[in-house]
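pasting for ref
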Amino acid sequence: MNALDTVIQVWWFVLGAVVGSFLNVVIHRLPRGESLVWPGSHCPYCGHSIRWFDNLPVLSWLILRGRCRDCSAPISVRYPLVEAISSAIVGSTAWMVSAGEWSKWLAAMAGMDRAATTMLLQVACFAGFLLTVFVVAAIHWDGEPAPTAVWGPCIGMTVLAYGLMSFWRAERDLPLLSESPLGVAFWVDLIVGTALGWGADMLNRHALQRLNRAKRVEVDSWDWTAATGVGALLWPAPVGIILGTLALLLQGGMSLGKFRASGKNTFSGVKRLHRNRGAVLALWGIANWGLLFLV
């Protein structure tokens, strides 16, 4: 690994941290129906806009010692933690897909090599998928239902990647994604993975509805259906089906167990069920991330 390879790989980690800064906004504002663009980043205590040099991922929080520059109010450690996790997801995904051989890939891209383009699609798809699982898990951890629309960019990216690959077959084997994008394995993954995720969502909806008879919370989250459907497309058929089955067992068992253990149909019970859902999603996302190092 030469100096250029190192610089480019570090750039991927920095890019992930920058993306994580935006994800903090998504996690906080999206469930509340607030704009992701306006107003800009500001202190929730004093309302002052955050200066650009105080908005550097992770570094600014460390420099300010976790406090607002204007009012000295504490800034949650969650913000740099989200940025650090996002950095790890994007950087490690780029490393595993490319094997850190960025000089070779740059030369291939300059020569319009199709395998190099496919490699970039893989980085975008896997990083986008893992980041989406992370965002949905964080929203649920806050006790909020995750808007289904959060999966839109991830699904669109995956469909686009497969659409391009169906016309643009790679010239060499790559470690991830199906070798025949629209073949039998593609449809098996899509149908079985989505069905398993739908089953997990149905079990969770049943528990939420029973815990929430007063209808104080909307029960409209379909994140397991989307997560397992996309996840099954990204992994080879057996792996995708195994992960979907684990998602069904984990989410279904947790949802039904929570319902049976609850003596009262309370709003707090619904909030706790969402938090448990976020924890299970996070574990499932870690399992998917770990497979990057094995496949």
